[in-house]
Write a structure and sequence with these properties.
about 375 residues; mainly alpha; name from scop; 2 domains
C-alpha cells in the first residue's frame, strides 16, 4: 500500500511538471514527422516551380558557356558569378522557404515550438557511459531499432515497387532526347519523393502517439509527488495557519475588536482594506473603525472572514476612504452616497432581501479617486 502511494508513477504529469520539463528541453518531438513535412513541402514546391527552375538552370548553363569581348577585356569573376546565380535565386529561395516553414511547422503541430535555453545546459548524466549503454540496449534503443527497420523496409519497398513499375520507361530513357528524358526523370523523381513522404507520414502517425505515451510515462508522477506539488503551489495548511496567526498579531486588540464589530469591510481587493461601522441611532454617519494596507489589510480581511463580517470588493471606494479618513473618523462627505449604497446592500443581504447577484454599482466622485500611491487620478 505504501509502495503504491509513493513509489509507483501512476499519476499523469501535472501542468507544472510539463512546463519544467519543457524548460529543460524535454519536449514532445518526432523526427519522422519533421522529415515527412520537409520532404513533402520541398517536393511539392519543386513540382510547382520545377519547370521554371529547369529553365533557369538551362539559361545559366548557356550564359556560363558564352564568351563575349568584355569577358576577356574586363573579366570580373564575382560580378559574372552573381549574374549567373541571380537567375536561379528566386526558384531556389522558394524551395528553401517552403522547407524552412515545414521544419517550423513540425514542432508547432506538437506544441513544442519555442526557444529553451535549458536545452543547451550541460547534463552530466548524459556523459555517463553506463547510462548511454542503457539507452542503446534498453527499451528506448529497441524502439528506435524497430522504427529504423520499419522505415528501411517501408521506404525500400516503395523504391523497389517504383523501379519495377517504371522499369520499361527507365530503360527507354536512353533512346529519348535530352529534354523528354529530363522531363521523365523529373516526373519519376517527384513521384518517388511523394510516395516516400507518404510512407514517412504513415510512420509518423505511429511514432507521434508512441512519443506522447513515452513522454507521459517518463514524466509520470507518484501520488506523493502530486501531493507535494499541490502543497507547494497552494501552501500547506500548517504554513497557512502560521501566516494567519502572524497577520492577527499585526492587529492591536482594539483594532481586532473594531473589525469584529464592523458592518462591512471594503477592499481594494489586495492592498487596502477599510472597516466601516454604521449603527442607526448610535452613529450619525458611517465611521471608519479600522483601515490598513498590505499585511494589515490582509489581516483585516482574514479576521472579517473569521468573524462573519461581510467583505466587498470596491477598489476605488476602498482607496478613497483609506486616503481621506482615519480610524475613528466619519467618512468623507463626498463618499456618503457610495457608502450608503454599500451599507444598504449589506443590510438587505443580512435580511435576505437581496443576494450577491444584486450587488450595486457605485461611483466615486472624480476628485476623490486615488491610485495605489495616494495620488489623485
Amino acid at each position: 500500500m505504501a509502495g503504491g502511494e509513493g513509489g509507483e508513477k501512476t499519476e499523469k504529469p501535472t501542468a507544472k511538471k510539463l512546463r519544467e520539463a519543457a524548460k529543460k528541453g524535454d519536449i514532445l518531438q518526432s523526427r519522422e514527422l519533421g522529415t515527412a513535412l520537409v520532404v513533402m513541402a520541398g517536393i511539392g514546391c519543386i513540382a510547382v516551380i520545377g519547370p521554371s527552375l529547369i529553365d533557369a538552370l538551362s539559361d545559366m548553363l548557356v550564359e556560363g558557356l558564352r564568351f563575349r569581348r568584355e569577358d576577356i577585356v574586363d573579366f570580373s569573376p564575382a560580378k559574372r558569378g552573381m549574374e549567373l546565380l541571380t537567375g536561379i535565386a528566386l526558384p531556389v529561395a522558394g524551395v528553401m522557404l517552403a522547407t524552412f516553414l515545414a521544419a517550423i511547422a513540425a514542432p508547432a503541430l506538437l506544441g513544442s515550438l519555442g526557444f529553451r535555453p535549458g536545452a543547451f545546459a550541460v547534463k552530466p548524466e548524459k556523459l555517463n557511459p553506463a547510462a548511454g549503454l542503457k539507452r542503446i540496449f534498453g527499451m528506448q534503443g529497441l524502439i528506435e531499432l524497430v522504427k529504423s527497420v520499419a522505415k528501411v523496409g517501408l521506404l525500400g519497398s516503395i523504391g523497389v515497387w517504383i523501379i519495377w513499375d517504371r522499369l520499361t520507361q527507365i530503360i527507354g530513357l536512353g533512346k529519348a532526347g535530352i529534354a523528354p528524358a529530363m522531363a521523365d526523370v523529373g516526373n519519376i523523381f517527384i513521384l518517388t519523393c511523394l510516395l516516400m513522404a507518404g510512407g514517412l507520414f504513415l510512420i509518423a502517425g505511429i511514432d507521434v502517439p508512441a512519443q506522447m505515451f513515452q513522454r507521459a510515462k517518463r514524466l509520470g508522477m507518484t501520488k506523493q509527488e502530486v501531493k507535494d506539488e499541490h502543497k507547494e503551489s497552494e501552501g500547506s495548511p500548517e504554513l497557512k495557519g502560521h501566516i494567519r496567526r502572524r497577520q492577527f498579531e499585526v492587529l492591536s486588540g482594539s483594532t481586532r475588536k473594531a473589525v469584529q464589530e464592523a458592518s462591512v469591510i471594503v477592499t481594494n481587493p489586495t492592498h487596502f482594506a477599510v472597516a466601516l461601522r454604521y449603527k442607526p441611532g448610535v452613529d450619525a454617519a458611517p465611521v471608519v473603525v479600522a483601515r490598513g494596507n498590505d499585511a494589515i489589510a490582509a489581516a483585516i480581511r482574514d479576521l472579517a472572514d473569521a468573524s462573519g463580517v461581510p467583505v466587498l470588493q470596491y477598489p476605488e471606494l476602498a482607496r478613497a476612504i483609506y486616503f481621506t479618513s482615519r480610524a475613528g473618523q466619519i467618512v468623507n462627505e463626498g463618499l456618503y452616497m457610495a457608502v450608503a449604497t454599500v451599507l444598504a446592500f449589506v443590510f438587505r443581504v443580512q435580511n435576505r432581501m437581496a443576494s450577491e447577484m444584486d450587488r450595486p454599482f457605485i461611483t466615486v466622485p472624480q476628485d476623490l479617486r486615488f491610485d495605489a500611491d495616494g495620488k489623485k487620478l
